[in-house]
């Protein structure tokens, strides 16, 4: 397929297809997966050309770190206009991830720093192993976030906590991360990718329209005025339940062909 060809050509990403799952590995381990323009544009290509048989995507870092953030060696070259365009380019690509047709799961280990944290925030589910840590050293580098963190991260951890990280350089450990909202899952040592794949397998089996509603409609509803949000919810609910896929799944439950909800 076209996407497979794109993936093969990509050199800063390691792309692998496992059944209906697409694994996107950030592959600059010698630079701790620092995000240069090349890697961001390769991510864009992958998400623009997602094959239709892919049901979920897992983003992970090769070499023990998720990402050390913006490649600081490229920053020196930029004036104000180039900086603005660069930030808008990241926004375009990370919006593509957030608005992907299928769920995107980030498997986090080691450094999840600056732009690496911004990338993780664009995913729908974050899974961290105990080695992960979260930091925004922009403050001490004399810069500001530019990859969407000021919009996405406060929705996860609160603006006060993000401000503290930027002002004081505070680093949060993986163990604290789940309670605070950085990640939804904490695994055993080196377990992030395995758990992310397990979750990806599960979400890929959902009705496509349910995944669409959760990824596209839910964030809009959550940000809307209450009455607009409730109306959007009703419209989405009615569309989803009238889909044949929903009818089949509900009939299967009523005919006791599928499992019940279990508490563990
Ligand atoms: C890099 C980068 C990078 C590593 N840009 N080259 N991000 C930061 O401020 C984090 C900067 N990085 C670090 O603090 C450390 O590298 C780590 C804690 C992530 C890892 O430490 P360590 O000891 O395992 O590795 P290292 O020896 O520091 O780094 C290995 C190499 O990667 C080294 O290059 P080398 O040629 O000397 O081997 C480092 O220079 C290189 N490297 N991180 C460029 N970030 C859209 S706005 C977003 C704004 C931000 O993201 S600001 C946060 C930037």
Automatic annotation (TrEMBL):
It holds the Pfam family ECH_1. It comes from the Bacteria. Transmembrane segments: none annotated. InterPro entries: ClpP/crotonase-like_dom_sf, Enoyl-CoA_hydra/iso, Enoyl-CoA_hydra_C. Keywords: Lyase. Gene3D superfamilies: 2-enoyl-CoA Hydratase, Chain A, domain 1, Lyase 2-enoyl-coa Hydratase, Chain A, domain 2. SUPFAM superfamilies: ClpP/crotonase. NCBIfam families: PRK08150.1. Belongs to the enoyl-CoA hydratase/isomerase family. This is Crotonase/enoyl-CoA hydratase family protein. It comes from Tardiphaga alba.
